[in-house]
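Archive maintenance. Older records in this collection stored only the sequence; we are now back-filling the structure field for every entry so that each record is complete. The fields below show one back-filled record exactly as it appears after the update. Entries are processed alphabetically, and Acetyl-coenzyme A carboxylase carboxyl transferase subunit alpha is next in the queue.

ARCHIVE ENTRY
Title: Acetyl-coenzyme A carboxylase carboxyl transferase subunit alpha
Organism field: Moorena producens 3L
Length field: 324
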Amino acid sequence: MSPAKNRTFSLDFEKPLVELEKRIKQIRELAEENNVDVSDQIRQLETRAIQLRQEIFNSLSPGQRLQLARHPRRPSTLDYIQAITDQWFELHGDRGGYDDPALVGGIGSLAGRAVVILGHQKGRDTKDNVARNFGMASPGGYRKAMRLMEHANRFGMPVLTFIDTPGAWAGVKAEELGQGEAIAYNLREMFRLDVPIMCTVIGEGGSGGALGIGVGDRVLMFENAVYTVASPEACAAILWKDASQGQQAAAALKITAWDLKELGIIDKVLSEPIGGAHGDPLAAASILKDALLENLAELTQLTAQQRRDLRYQKFRNMGIFVES
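Back-filled structure field:
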C-alpha cells in the first residue's frame, strides 16, 4: 500500500516526503504520456523515499509523536474493532438514561473467543467530531463502560479497552452529572474484576479521561501514541502561562511510549508501520491483534486472584521514588 495514495493530510515534518512522492508521481505520469522508460530513475527515487521515510519517523520528537497521535486519519476504536474481530455487536446505554457516543463498546469474537471491547471514539471530520464530542467521554460514558465490564465479569469474558481521548469532558454539565465520581468508581471497580483486562493506548491518552478505562493487567501502547497527565498545551499554560510552549512541555512530561515503558507505566510498546498507523491501518490492526492474543494467552493461565494481585501491584508500584 503506497502512503502517497492515502495521504490526504500531511504534517509539517512529513512535507519533504510528500514533495518527493509527488515528484515520483509526476515523473511516472509524464513518462507514460510520452512512452518513455524511466524505470531506473523511478526506482532510485522510490528507494530514496523509503530511506527518507525511515529517517523522519525514526527520529521523531515527543511533540511530533503527539501530532501523529492526533492525526485525523489515525485508526480509531471502531476501526480496530472491525479489523480484528470475527463478529461484533455494539451495546448501548448506561442504564441511567444516557448513551455516550464518545465511548463505545460491545461484545466481539477475537480469534473465536468472546470478549468485551470498549474504547473512546473520535470523529473523522468536524461534524463527526462534534457528534462524538471529540472523544471526550461524559459520566454516562464511563458508567456505560463499567456496565459492560460488569457484564464481561459475570460471563467470564476478557475485557479489552482502547484509549484515545484528549481527556474526559470538562463541561459544567459533566460536573453536575458526577464526572469525577464516575471515573473514580471505574478505577476502584476495575481492580476487583476477575477476568483478564488489557488496555491499549491507540492514540491520545489524556488525563483521567484515559484512566477511567485504563486499569488493566497489561497496558500496551502504540509507539506513536501518547499518554499524559495533562495535554502539553495545558501544562505549558499552567507552568509558563503560554500554551505555545507545548513542544517543550511534551518533552518534559515524558509522554512517549518509550519513556513510559522505561518508567514502568506501560508493559509493551507496539510498533507501527513506517509512516504511522494511519499510513497502513490494516498492518497496524494486525500488530494489535497479535499482541492482544499473545498477552491474553498468558493472562488466561493465571487464576483470578493472581490477576487481581498482579493488577494491584502494577499500579501500586507506579510513582515510587527513593530520596538520597
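Update note: The radius of gyration is 21 Å. DSSP finds 15 helices and eight strands in the chain.
Entry marked complete.
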